[in-house]
Cytochrome c oxidase assembly factor 3 (Petrolisthes cinctipes), 93 residues
Amino acid sequence: MAVTVVAVGRCRMAGESKQMPKLDLQRDSQQLSRAQMDYMKIIENQNLERVRKLATQRRSNILVGTLLGLGVAGIYSYSIYAVKQEKFLDELD
């Protein structure tokens, strides 16, 4: 039984990445069409809106996590205070 291996795509070299090359808008603006420039502005605005939304979500997540941690610490401290370990062990004897 023969095994056939088919390579899909190509191997990346050490310095290659999946990112597209950076553009210098001052230098490369003549090569870009008006539609491409408009599309870049739309994508940039969408990205800024996404970043703002993620920042707001992160702040609210930090607030909720802090409040939950404080609640757990408060319940733990109250339970230690209310039970008072020494009196509890004295009652068992």
About this structure: The mean pLDDT is 79. The radius of gyration is 30 Å.
